[in-house]
Amino acid sequence: MVRIYQLADTDKEFVQDITYATNSQNPVDLRDLRSNDDIQKRLEMGIADLGYTYKCQREEGAGGSGVVTSSIVAESVLAIWRRRPHQAKFRRKEHFGKLYDDIFQGLNAAQALLAVLVFRAVENERKRPSSASPPDFLPYASHYISMLIGRKLLDDMHIALDKVSHLNFREVLGCFEANEAEYHADAVEHVFDALRSCYGDRVVSLQQLSATFRRGDLLEMLGVDGDGSDR
């Protein structure tokens, strides 16, 4: 059985809607289905203007420090700018489905790329800690640490997220790079304090730590409401 649609050449947006609607319940990567929409194309052009390559689809050639994928943009933005770190890590399958508009609506290339570079730096510290005795929670906390760094960075620059653009991208990135170690240490301390508020001074198992970060229990302690906004 086949289904045939006859549409005018001017109905490209409707074609995209049909493609998404008829495939979203099938085992097709939603990232690929979204790759041709206007949001992804704007990000691709904007990120290219900033000197990086944006990959909208799976397996689009080699990676590298100059390559940014739409999947890592979604994860980084949801954690940092949308302030939903638990959903960024544990609801990846929904990033291009239910959470797509929450992540990508209103997002420009500078904001997307800045989130990725912050998250990459935090992940590098998780994989290769500079401290000889990193905290036990570090393997679970990258998305939370990244969120706190993003908030501190905007505060230090005295700007709101919607003011981050290609015009000040280098300046904001330079501030992050100059203060990266301080930002990371400060964020780790904030997470430690939040855990202490939850559990006091008693010993917390790794299983409990994992569950705490998965549920988002720390967000209230970190001053973030359930909708991702500051309290």
Please describe what this structure looks like:
This protein has 231 residues and is mainly alpha-helical. The protein has two domains: 93 residues, no CATH class; 100 residues, no CATH class. The chain has a two-stranded parallel sheet. 32% of the residues are buried. About 2% of the residues have low confidence.
Q: How would you concisely characterize the structure shown here?
A:
With 231 residues, the chain is an all-alpha fold.
Distinctive features:
231 residues, globular, 3% strand
Order of helical and strand elements:
HHHEEHHHHHHH
The fraction of residues assigned to DSSP E strands is under 5%
Number of strands: 2
Q: What's the end-to-end separation, in Å?
A: 54 Å
Share of helix, binned: 40-55%
Radius of gyration over C-alpha positions, nearest whole angstrom: 19 Å
Helices, strands, pairings?
Elements: H1 12-23, H2 30-34, H3 38-49, E1 53-55, E2 67-69, H4 70-80, H5 85-90, H6 100-104, H7 109-127, H8 142-157, H9 169-199, H10 206-215
